[in-house]
Amino acid sequence: MRQARRRCLWAASHPLNQEYHDHEWGVPVHDDRRLFEMLILEGAQAGLNWLTILKKRDGYRSAFDRFDPSIVARYRSAQIRRLMADASIVRNRLKIEAAIKNARAFLELQEEFGSADTYLWKFVGGRPKKNARKSMKEVPATTPESDAMSRELKARGFSFVGSTICYSFMQAVGMVNDHTANCFRYRECAKLT
User: Fold this and answer.
1) Is residue 42 annotated as part of the catalytic site, yes or no?
2) So what CATH class is 25-190?
């Protein structure tokens, strides 16, 4: 009988978590649109669990124009009303308004640095940090890098980018490898740059 793969414990709670864990979480992302998507989704998660967001991710992609920051940045009151009525996303006015505000700030990053990727990855020196944690209990909620990212993003006009959100973002887009050392994805993600 074939032995099941060892995964980070959080991935076992639901098939969507498992799929996300096995194929996305911890994989380095350098595409600006995907970085914008994850920044918005991590902010939407505040006060909720990630599974709630995963279940609504397709709804978010549709509602937020496939996370094109140049389109989202132009949203006004009519789009906010539309989003507040859209059950396929988390209908929280502050989070919706933050997504629009963040799209505008994201465009400014792209203008200033040539890409948001260049700016965001500087917080880890341009390469993923490879942690080797034995259990999820060892994974911090924040780090000095996420503190710095949060502070700078807030200074640049972003919202819903506290240090905990920033660290979750860093984990999601592979800036840090926080798969536990006994997880099959740890070694796979450790090889990615």
Assistant:
1) yes
2) mainly alpha
